[in-house]
Amino acid sequence: MADPVCDFCMSPKPRWSYDCEDHATNFIDTPEGCVLTHSIGAWAACTRCSRIIDRADPLVLARVAAESNLRRHGVPVTKDELMEYAATLEPRFVELLPKLGPRRKPTPEEDSERPALEVEDLPMQNHNLN
């Protein structure tokens, strides 16, 4: 199993965990078709993202997540494009933040057995992907 990462910015070795009920998170359009991602259990967070979560600031969290995601994939973007991408993430974080439990240290089992993001294949349809 891969080493745990922050579920928001993908930083290695997240220090915090937030309990959350399992739920569908997003439709993603891939070359293989449209997929639905699921959040399973607690969300892991690095110290920086944890501070943002505890401030309940979905806009800043969306900007951090967008920037790290684009950087990780080597996608060159302008500041305007980055802000546009962050704007698509912000409503998801507005919905997610109230569902998260209080910050806590992850258990050793969570550190070693944390499930990967599950993906369910869906038939290609007209989904609002933004």
Task: Describe the structure concisely.
The protein is of the alpha+beta class and 130 residues long.
Describe this structure in words.
By secondary structure, the chain is α+β, with helices and mostly antiparallel strands. It has one domain (16-108). 36% of the residues lie in helices and 21% in strands. It contains four helices and six strands, in the order E-E-E-E-H-H-H-E-H-E. The strands form two sheets. A three-stranded antiparallel beta sheet has the order 4-1-5. Strands 2-3-6 form a three-stranded antiparallel beta sheet, with no helix packed on it. A hairpin with a 2-residue loop joins strand 2 (23-30) and strand 3 (33-39). Helix 2 (58-72) crosses helix 3. The N and C termini lie far apart (30 Å).
Mean pLDDT: 76
Distance between the termini: 30 Å
Q: How many strands appear in the DSSP assignment?
A: 6
Q: How large is the count of helical segments?
A: 4
Radius of gyration: 15 Å
Taken as a percent bin, the fraction of beta residues is: 15-25%
Largest sheet report: 3 strands, antiparallel
Task: Describe the oligomeric state of these chains in a short phrase.
Answer: single chain
Overall geometric form: globular
Query: Which class of secondary structure composition applies to the elements?
Result: alpha+beta
Overall number of domains: 1
Give the topology string: H per helix, E per strand.
Answer: EEEEHHHEHE
Which percent range fits the helix content?
Answer: 25-40%
